[in-house]
Design brief:
This is Gfo/Idh/MocA family oxidoreductase. With 344 residues, the chain is of the alpha/beta class. It is 26% helix and 26% strand. The chain contains 9 helices and 16 strands. The strands form 3 sheets. It has a 7-stranded parallel beta sheet with strand order 3-2-1-4-5-6-16, with helices on both faces. Strand 14 and strand 15 form a beta hairpin. Helix 1 crosses helix 8.
């Protein structure tokens, strides 16, 4: 059984803890969170379940030894590195849902090298996991390209439900009026999706493509709500932005060979668009299409991707890895290991 500690108990971290507590192959032995309301409280109480005997501390340095540390704090790699390095130096294997950690070799080469060197020096692994990046716009399309001998272009369009998220919604500007959105974007607080550059770089690397550049566009409002839309942590009122669009492209000779776009939103039956995902891989011998009429639920998919990858990280070779470096069988769902049905 793998011993696990959790760092960060926001909505995503709590959902991950709930899932891990029901698995027979892991045991949570520690948890850390900066929120004063959780410090000194039993982890089970924090997540609304029965007591576990694990008391939440406010500093990861106070965590007990374990096989794996799971970090669910921030999307900014430069910030999260200050948490990751000390954990690696204590010989934890580390899994983080920081989007920029998914494949930082192109976007953050110095940080990537530091993490890789530190992990190898201590014989442990560090991995960025999650739905996107991690699976949906990099590892999954890369796997689909196995069906064609040469890929000419990859196009992905996602429309994803964000109603289960909490604090992360602020970076998209959901719940703001158009005027508030413009001001927030100008001040730099609305930035959209973290991880486009990492997903494109990971996919291009897997295809042995050398891109000339990666262009990440500005996040733009897509739907202003005319109704009240209830999320688990945020309510979107009439006149507020209920959906935004963000896109990025990987270019070769001025042509977009990787073309990604995501609409993040609180969707309503009255909208002209609904949640869904569409994949197009243009190959030299055939065109591969994959579509989901309901879409891959981002919150649940992120939890599943991280939880399913957790044991694999402990068994993986030392260094900084991406999801595409791990065997498919090691990442596959291990639902048979759940002790009981999990409600996230």
């Amino acid at each position: 059984m793998k011993r696990v500690v959790m760092v960060g108990l926001g909505s995503t971290g709590v959902a991950m803890v709930k899932s891990l507590l029901h698995r027979s192959d892991v045991q949570i032995v520690g948890a850390a969170d900066r929120n004063p309301a959780t410090t000194g409280v039993d982890l089970g109480v924090v997540i609304g379940e029965s007591e576990t005997g694990v008391i939440v501390v406010d500093d990861p340095a106070a965590l007990p030894s374990a096989d794996l540390a799971i970090v669910a704090t921030t999307s900014d790699l430069n910030q999260v590195t200050h948490t990751l390095i000390p954990l690696l130096e204590r010989s934890y294997n580390v899994l983080s849902i920081c989007e920029e950690l998914a494949y930082p070799w192109s976007s953050h080469p110095e940080v990537a090298r530091q993490l890789d060197d530190t992990a190898k020096a201590h014989g442990v692994t560090v991995l960025g996991s999650g739905a996107n990046p991690g699976v949906l716009m990099d590892t999954l399309p890369l796997l689909l390209t196995v069906l064609t001998q040469r890929v000419d272009r990859v196009v992905i369009r996602r429309r994803t439900n964000m109603s289960r998220y909490g604090a992360i919604l602020s970076k998209f500007g959901l719940g703001l009026t158009p005027g508030e959105f413009a001001d927030a974007q100008a001040s730099g607080s609305v930035v959209g999706h973290y991880g486009f550059e990492q997903a494109i770089s990971s996919l291009a690397s897997g295809l042995d493509w050398s891109l000339d550049s990666i262009e990440v566009g500005q996040v733009t409002p897509a739907v202003v709500s005319e109704t009240v839309r209830l999320g688990e942590h945020v309510t979107v009122e009439p006149g507020q932005i209920a959906a935004v669009t963000h896109s990025a492209r990987g270019l070769v000779d001025g042509r977009a060979v990787i073309d990604l776009e995501i609409m993040f939103g609180f969707f309503d039956p009255s909208d002209s668009v609904t949640a869904g995902d569409d994949y197009l891989i243009e190959g030299s011998d055939q065109v591969i299409e994959l579509a989901s009429s309901v879409g891959f639920e981002s919150f649940l998919s992120t939890i599943a991707a991280a939880v399913n990858a957790a044991p694999a990280v402990v068994e993986a070779r030392p260094g900084l890895l991406s999801m595409g470096d791990l065997p498919v069988r090691a990442l596959a769902s291990k639902g048979a290991l759940q002790r009981a049905e999990v409600a996230l």
